[in-house]
Design goal:
The chain is an alpha+beta fold. The chain contains 8 helices and 15 strands. The protein folds into 2 domains: about 10-110, Phosphorylase Kinase, domain 1 (2-Layer Sandwich); about 110-300, Transferase(Phosphotransferase) domain 1 (Transferase(Phosphotransferase), domain 1), CATH 1.10.510.10. A hairpin with a 3-residue loop joins strand 5 and strand 6. GO terms for molecular function: ATP binding; protein serine/threonine kinase activity. Keywords: ATP-binding, Kinase, Nucleotide-binding, Serine/threonine-protein kinase, Transferase. This is Protein kinase domain-containing protein.
């Protein structure tokens, strides 16, 4: 039986009614967890307006599929919690639909992926908006756990929007265990050193690490621990080498673009290998960088940098498996 509440955004429909409601235009991404489709409501008055992105999981009687449906339900609950308390840099939620064959989330469709190798004056506003969005999440007990350029889209107004909350977690802020984890999952190149090793860590600090690496990549075109764009980390040994670089905290490779000394300093605070010294979102937002003009900040032209921060030397066990998505996670934007 189809169950609909006009006041609700959660629906139980038959497969037939789903097909009558949504026109599935094309698949724009896929992975072991499911697929993402560009769709349009069939009763829409315009061919181009009201496009939505649909994240879809096939339902079947297997434990793996059941886990994916539960993960999608968890993702829905997190993004839905912001429906009446939105932030411009967090993807808007539309609805959750379940049928005998599918479970799916519909959200705003944003076709443009955030570019990289962007000049700092243009990127600065994007950085501030994304940082504000991450601070917004943390203040509400949510961590994203998979921040990277492939999970950032641009709105028609050129506002960066964080998407794909498939790895996100929501904590009870009153719990002494809030934001505590020892799990290791996400996209390897963006994992903080402590998260990559599965050590006990503050998940908010790991989000800030990933955001700092993301900012660096938007400016430079690669992460600070890749010698060149597209360097491959397809084996466990390759990843060990990469994570050893992150522990040293020294940016590698030749940096051909110029950016201000102030953003360099800010990034070092965000990408500190010592989580105790790494800044929180609030601390990054409070930095004077955001109120200064870039022209007055001077430029850094170094080809490589030392983290410039004290690193407590600790023993790290061997790396753990990162999760079923492999070394490159499939993004909502499917880049």
């Amino acid at each position: 039986m189809d169950q609909e509440d006009p006041q609700s955004d959660i629906f139980s429909l038959s497969d037939h009614l789903l097909a009558e409601r949504l026109h599935f235009i094309k698949e724009i991404g896929f992975g072991n967890w499911g697929s993402v489709w560009l769709c349009r409501p069939k009763h829409s008055s315009s061919e181009s307006d009201h496009h939505v992105a649909v994240k879809l999981v096939h339902r079947s009687k297997t434990s793996t599929t059941a886990a994916r449906v539960r993960s999608l339900w968890n993702e829905m609950k997190i993004v839905r919690s912001f429906k009446h308390d939105p932030h411009p840099s967090i993807i808007p939620f539309h609805s959750f639909i379940i049928t005998p064959s599918y479970a799916l989330i519909t959200m705003a469709y944003l076709p443009a992926l955030i570019p990289v190798e962007v000049a700092e004056p243009k990127a600065k506003d994007w950085f501030n908006s994304l940082l504000s969005g991450v601070h917004f999440l943390h203040e509400r007990g949510v961590v994203h756990n998979d921040i990277k350029p492939a999970n950032i889209l641009l709105s028609p107004q050129s506002v960066p929007v964080l998407v794909d909350f498939g790895f996100a977690e929501k904590y009870d802020l009153s719990s002494p265990k809030a934001f505590h984890s020892n799990l290791a999952y996400g996209t390897p190149e963006y994992l903080s050193p402590e998260r990559a090793r599965g050590l006990p860590h503050d998940t908010r600090k790991s989000d800030i690490w990933s955001l700092g690496v993301t900012f660096f990549e938007i400016l430079v075109g690669r992460t600070p621990f890749e010698y060149e764009e597209g360097e491959q980390f397809s084996t466990k040994e390759d990843l060990e080498k990469y994570w050893t670089r992150t522990m040293r905290g020294k940016w590698v490779g030749t940096i051909k673009v110029k950016f201000s000394k102030s953003i360099e300093k800010l990034l070092k605070h965000m990408i500190s290998p010592n989580a105790d010294l790494r800044w929180t979102a609030s601390e990054v937002l409070a930095d004077v960088y955001w109120t200064m003009s870039i022209e007055k900040q001077g430029h850094s032209e170094s080809s490589g940098f030392d983290a410039g921060l004290v690193l407590l030397m600790i023993y790290l066990p061997s790396c753990r498996e990162i999760g079923e998505r492999g070394s490159r996670c499939i993004a909502w934007s499917c880049a």
